[in-house]
Amino acid sequence: MNNANGRGAAAMGTSSECTRRLAEYAVDLRYDDIPSTVLARAKNTIADGIGAIIFGSTLPWSRMILDYAERAGAGGRSRLLRPGGPLVGAASAALANGLMAHAFELDGATKPAVGVHPFATIFPAALALAQERGIGGRRLLAAFVAATECAIRIGRATKKSNERRGFHAPGTTGPFAAAVACGRLVGLDARRMANALGIAGSLAAGLVQFSRSKGGGMVKRLHFGRANESGILAANLADRGFTGPNDIIEGEFGFLRAFCDDYALEEVTKDLGETFHTLTIYMKRYPAHSTAQTPLQAIEELQAERRFTGDEVETMSIAGSHDMLERHDIPEPTDIMSLQYSVNCCAALACYRDPRDPRSYDETALADPRIRALSRRIALIPLDKALQKTRDSVKVTVTLKDGTTLARQLNHFKGTPDSPPSVADVHEKFAILMRDCTTAKAEEIFERIQNLEAEKDIDWLAV
What we know:
CATH class of the largest domain: Mainly Alpha
Number of domains: 2
Strand content: 5-15%
CATH architecture of the largest domain: Orthogonal Bundle
CATH topology of the largest domain: 2-methylcitrate dehydratase PrpD
Largest sheet: 4 strands, mixed
Number of strands: 8
Number of helices: 19
Shape: globular
Strand order of the largest sheet: 6-5-7-8
C-alpha cells in the first residue's frame, strides 16, 4: 500500500506523529477560538441531526435497537430520543441514538465527500456523556467541533479507499471521531487522548456488503450506533489509564495501512488549527443517499417548469459520476435501504410522491408497480467529462409520452458548502421531521439548539 505520492513507508517520517498532534489539537481547542460561522454551522448540523434521530425512532430497526438499549442500559442518566424515551446508561444511549441518527438517510456528511458523517458519528455519544455528567452546551459544542475537525482530516487521509476495499467509512472513521468528543468531555489530557484514539482504532468496523446483498440493509444503520458506543468506551477506558497505540493512524499496522489501499497521511494534520473543515458539512434535502440529492433537485426544478407525473414519462436518463453508476444503479431495490441507495428508484419515486418527506419512502413505495416500472426505465449513464464540474454534477433528461423533452444540469444541490442552508432551510426540514411531535415542543428544541452555548445542561433534550 502506498501513500498519496506512492512513496510507501519511507515517506511516513514527515507525519510520523500525526496521532499525537491530533490528540493535542483535540485537547487544546478552545471554544473562544472557534469562529462564529463554524459555531453556526455546528448548531444547524445538530438541529438537523436531532430531527433525524427523532423521526428515525419510529422505524422498525430503530424499535429493535431501542428495545435492546432499554434492557441493556437501564438505570442511567442519558436519554433515548424517542417519544417518552427513558433514561439509560451513556453507552446504550449512544448506541441507539447513533443508529437512529442514520436510520433513514437523513443526516448530512461533507463536501468533498470523505466518508465522514459528523453528526451521526459524534453527537449521539457526546450528548449521552453530557447528560450523564451534567455538562452544558458550550463544552458540548466545542467537543463536537474538535471531533469534527479530527474526523474529517482522517477521512480525507483515507481518500475513501477504505470503501473501495469494502469497509464502510463511517464505521471505520466514526470511532475516532466519537472518542475525541467523549475524551474532551471526560477531561482527557493529550497523552490519554492519544490512548483513546489508539483504542478507537481497534474498534473500527463496518462492511459495505449491504450495498451488494439482496437484503440486510439494516446493518448499515448499526455502523453509526457502534461508532458512538465505541467512542464512549474508548474515552472511558483511556480516562482510567487503559492504553492504546500512540501511532494508531500512521503506524506500520495502523489504521491507514490496514484499511486503505491509497492514502494521504499529510491530510491528517494539514492546516490543523488554521482551517475549520466543519464548514464543509452539508445538509440533505432528501432522505436518500448523497448521490441522489442533485438528481432529485433537478427533477423538482423540472417539475416546477412543467408539472408531470411518472405516468407521463416515456424515458429518463441521469448522467452522473462513475461512483453513481458503480454503486447506485439499482433499478430494482429489494428493501428500503437499497431504495434510498438507488438513484433510479429515488428519481422514480419523485415523479409520484413528495421526495422531501421521509414518509414517502416506505414499503408501499417499494412495492408500488408504477414506481418500480419507471425505475426500470431510468438509465444511469456517464456524464460527459466536459460537464463534470463537481462530483455532484448531473444532467437529467426526461422525455414525456407527448414528445416533450425536458433537461436540467446541476453541479451541486442546495445545502452544500457552495449553497449552504440558512437557519430557515434547516427549520423547514426540522419541521417535516418533527411533524409527529407537538409544534410547541419542536419549536422549543429548535430554538434551544440555536442557543446551545447558553444551556447549563442538556437534560431538556427529550420528547
